[in-house]
Write a structure and sequence with these properties.
Elements (H helix, E strand, L loop, with lengths): L1 E3 H7 L6 H10 L2 E8 L4 E14 L2 E10 L5 E6 L9 E11 L4 E2 L3 E3 L2 E3 L2 E2 L27 H4 L5 E8 L1
Antiparallel strand pairs: 1-11, 2-11, 3-4, 3-6, 4-5, 6-7, 6-10, 8-9
């Protein structure tokens, strides 16, 4: 069974850490492990696709010029079918992390073209399961704003409980 710490806090006054709660539940005979949910990335900001054109060496890739609100624009290779000029998107800049730090964005060459970042889908940000294209954000926020300030995250700890 899965139980949310936020739900438990609606009914109980809890002052222990999530790990301490899992340990105490296990000591009571209810095997428990906990998993944090919510934001699983860092360094992802709001960007705007200024230009988007075909990749010279790949039919399904596009080369985009993206503004992230700092002093320069970034060339990013993107394989999403819905990328186009003029849209606001989440951009993982070089050094950003995805999947709780397991994936670090680096400057790379894709089919001979330098890519300085990644335009992200909802699945890549662990926000939803949509991997059919990049996220298009309908916002008037300032470019460079951290994406977590634009999107709402349900920070929580989920306990997986099993009777022993």
């Amino acid at each position: 069974m899965k139980v949310s710490l936020n739900w438990l806090k609606d009914y109980l006054d809890i002052s222990h850490s999530p790990e301490e709660i899992a340990d105490k539940l296990t000591a009571l005979g209810i095997e428990a492990c906990c998993e944090n949910t919510g934001k699983s990335f860092s360094g992802v900001v709001l960007g705007k696709v200024l230009e988007c054109g075909p990749h010279e060496n790949a039919d399904k890739l596009s080369v985009c010029e993206v503004d992230t609100g700092d002093s320069k624009n970034y060339s990013i290779v993107c394989g999403a079918p819905n990328v186009k000029e003029g849209i606001h998107v989440p951009v993982a800049k070089v050094g950003a992390t995805l999947q709780n730090g397991e994936f670090i964005i680096k400057k790379v060459k894709l089919r001979g073209v330098q890519s300085s970042g990644m335009i992200c889908s909802g699945k890549e940000l662990a926000i939803n399961d949509d991997h059919d294209g990049i996220m298009i954000l309908d916002t008037n926020e300032k470019l460079g704003t951290p994406v977590e300030d634009i999107l709402s995250f349900n920070e929580d700890v989920v306990y997986e409980l099993d009777l022993t």
